Structure formats: structure tokens, C-alpha cells
Amino acid sequence: MATISANGIWTAEVRRLARERDAVILAHNYQRPEIQDVADHVGDSLALSRAAARADAGTIVFCGVHFMAETAKILAPDKTVLIPDPRAGCSLADTISADDVRAWKAEHPGAVVVAYVNTSAAVKAEADVCCTSSNAADVVRSVPEDREILFLPDQFLGAHVRRVTGRANMHVWAGECHVHAGIDGATLRARAEASPDAELFIHPECGCATSALYLAGAGAVPAERVRVLSTGGMVDAARRTTARQVLVATETGMLHQLRGANPSTRFEPVNDRAECRYMKMITAEKLLRSLREGVVEISVAPEIAAAARRAVERMVAIGNPSRGGE
Ligand code: 13P
Ligand code: SF4
């Protein structure tokens, strides 16, 4: 598809169809490069949801995974939200159902449920407040000290938040993303040792997030070179860094934005096989079809959407979504 994109025909056709349909195209940082390049906005999951809520267009074409398109629909209920392939799921979101949350709450009456945005609308509807990788610590700090917290569904993000907040009465669901769990501490250590001057950008969902901070704590990597960041935070940090080399621990689609943000730094993946097959289900052909045929429309039942919206809006009122996640 790169050839079609390169000669501009595909790009021109996508833009023409978007105008015709009064559509705005949003793309997550892990999308294929040609999808990122044709989109109106590229960003992390929360930034895109907020762009959806602000959009003037009547239709949003969400190039990302299903829970992200659902969040856009929750925040922009009057707009038509399309996803080019509704099978683009998320292995992390799949680790917990609304029934699981209800059963967990029954075991901890009075606990506050904090749900990462990587969850279905039905799970968000069971939560008190949502969080993203960029504001999870602020959200946890906003919960009164004496209230237990049920944090779901990512165990590595949960461990990171527990570490930075020092929160003891926080229970963490044992979910993980198969892509980020596969970026492990041993791989990170080997890469960091081979490139002693490189900075490390680590997504908090990674299996190596704990190891990165341990390496920093043990003096193996200078602490100021280790940054735990959301995908949006990585782009901000890429613009500011003066390092010659940055090792990036997250899904490899991220490299396209980072390299564009700062061409004088070398951005390299910690694990070059860390690819999310769900994100990559959104292809150039499917985006064209989505715009031509108005498919596939996302719908969320009104009562679920209303409850989920409360949890998302509470997060927006507390957290600072533009921060980097440290
Ligand atoms: P961000 O919110 O940091 O973009 O992360 C979303 C995600 O799915 C990470 O795998
Ligand atoms: Fe879900 Fe992991 Fe893919 Fe992100 S990278 S969308 S958490 S499966």
C-alpha cells in the first residue's frame, strides 16, 4: 500500500472522501505510517478521544482499536463514529469483563474502582473513575487515603502507579497487554548496556517498566535517562531531547511519530517484534472502504454510555492529560 500512498492517489482519494462525508480522521500513534500521515490528528488514546469530542465534523473515523472508538462515541454521542475494522480489539481490555468487575467490587465493598481507558464501555460503566497512562498517578492520588482502590486491568501500569504514589491499599488486576508484556527486563538491560549513552523511553504497560526503574535505582543507567511515558508523552519528550540515541520500549508504530518529531535523534525499538496485530488491522484499503460506505459504525447502549461517561469525565476533571506520565 506504500506505493499507492507514495504517489499521492490514495491520499488524495481519502481526503476527498473525508470532505464529502464531513469526516475527521483520527489515528493512534501505533497505526501504520500511511494511516498516521493521512489523518487529521495523531495521538494517544485520551488525546484522540478529546479531539473527537471537540471535532466539528459530523463523522469521526477512528483508526485505532475498538475501545478507543467506543470512548470517542461515549464522549461524542451525537456524532457518527466509524472504525475501519471492528475486529481490532485489545488483549489487555479482554482480560476483564463487567461481570468480573462486579464480582471484585462485591469482595471489596466501598472500594474506589479506577479503570484504565484500555477497557470496554461496559467495564468503564462499572468504574468510579478512568485513567490513562499519562494521568494514572494523579487519579490515584485524588482518591482519599483511607479508601481502598481496585485498579484495573494492567498489572504493570498498576505496579508503576503503586511505586510512584506509595499507595498501599491498592489492589491491582493481573491483566497485561501481550505486546508490552513481551518487552522484558532482560532485553531492556542488554540493550541499555550495549548503548550506554542512550535515553530510555518506556511505556508503563511494559513488562520491563519495573526493571528500567530498578536499573536506574541500581545506578546501571543514570536515572535522568529513564523516562516512563505515555505514547503522547513520548512525542513531547522526543521534541525536547538532545540525546543522540533513544531506546523505545513500546509498540513499534510509535517510531514513525518520534522520528518525525526529531530527525536528529536516532530512535530505536527495544524489541523490534513488539507489534500490535490489532492496531495493524486498520489498513489503507479498509480506511477507504470505511469512508466510501460509512462502515463500521460504533454504537454504545445509552445507559452504559451515560455511566461510562461519568467515569471518563471525572478523570478529565482530575488528571492532566497532556502530561507525560512520569
Ligand atoms: P496510550 O494511551 O499511551 O496511547 O496507550 C494506549 C495503548 O493501547 C498502549 O498500548
Ligand atoms: Fe491493546 Fe496492547 Fe494493542 Fe495497546 S498494544 S491496543 S494495550 S493489545
How would you characterize the overall build of this protein?
By secondary structure, the protein is an alpha/beta fold. The chain folds into 3 domains: 6-88 and 279-300, NadA-like (Rossmann fold), CATH 3.40.50.10800; 93-175, NadA-like (Rossmann fold), CATH 3.40.50.10800; 179-269, Rossmann fold, CATH 3.40.50.10800. The chain has helices at 2-6, 9-21, 33-38, 45-54, 66-75, 98-107, 121-125, 136-141, 155-165, 178-181, 185-194, 209-217, 231-240, 254-261, 284-293, 302-318, and strands at 23-28, 41-43, 59-63, 80-82, 112-116, 129-131, 149-152, 170-172, 199-202, 226-228, 245-249, 266-269. The strands form 3 sheets. The protein has a 4-stranded parallel beta sheet with strand order 2-1-3-4, with helices on both faces. α7 (121-125) links the parallel β5 and β6 (129-131). The chain is globular. The two termini are 37 Å apart. The structure holds 1,3-dihydroxyacetonephosphate and iron/sulfur cluster (SF4).
Highlighted features:
326 residues; four-stranded parallel β-sheet; single chain; binds iron/sulfur cluster; Rossmann fold; 16 helices; 12 strands; alpha/beta
In short:
The protein has 326 residues and is α/β, with parallel strands linked by helices. The protein is 44% helix and 15% strand. The chain has a 4-stranded parallel sheet, sandwiched between helices.
